[in-house]
Design brief:
- By secondary structure, the protein is an alpha/beta fold.
- It contains eight helices and eight strands, in the order βααββααβαβαβαββα.
- Helices cover 34% and strands 16% of the residues.
- The protein is globular.
- α2 crosses α3, α6 packs across α7 and α7 packs across α8.
- The relative contact order is 0.20.
Amino acid sequence: MTLTGERSAPMAQPEAEGEGRRPGPGGDSASGRSGVATSSREPQVCRGISPWLAPVAMVTTQDLVLPLWFRSITVEGRPHLPSAGPVLLAPTHKARWDALLLPHAAGRRVTGRDCRFMVTIDEMRGLQGWFLQRLGCFPVNQTRPSLASLRYAVDLLAAGEQLVVFPEGRIRREPGPIRLHQGLARLALLAAGRGVSVPVVPVGLAYSHPSPLPCARAAVHVGPPMWIQGEGRDAALAFTRELADALTVLEARASAAIGIPPPSG
């Protein structure tokens, strides 16, 4: 393989529950990467990052699974990734492979930190859920997200973590308009209300086949950071539109990098 250069959930009104201790400006404690809880809310939401499973998973996926499955993976725009401080990665959602490509493009080996994924409750069930729980992923209810999940996400950002939220909320395999939910923008506003200014980094993904087959090609195109301005519903709506425009451009560039022509019309 030549190396160059699941679904998440929209957030509705949160469901009230116990808040736990309110973290300070810099987060509650050390990063979950060391196996230490990032916040007092972590036990309510997930198991953090396993200090033994995470390295095994990284070697298995980055050194075995991706090279064996894909003929080439092109990554452009890595200099746009912040080297420190909180960041919200906002990728397009083209396939389940996205969850492996993003750590390849922006994970520990590149930025020195892990990708923390916000995923749907359904994806946290069964054997898959057992692994995700121990690899830093945490669930959010699509229809009624709990305060614990949302505040935990803000805790991660306050601790300078790299959080991944798929703003489309579902996989979109076929070409077409990119339609985003406002959940990511609302999360950025929620963090800003806590005094945590978060850059949102748009990421376009593309594959040579809608359901990537063995020897497929993949591309990741990282765009410059974006910052939400203002507050309230109008700010969330305006930022969501700007993000959709940026993702449309980046996905087109990722597609062009692997020889996929732009859609006709």
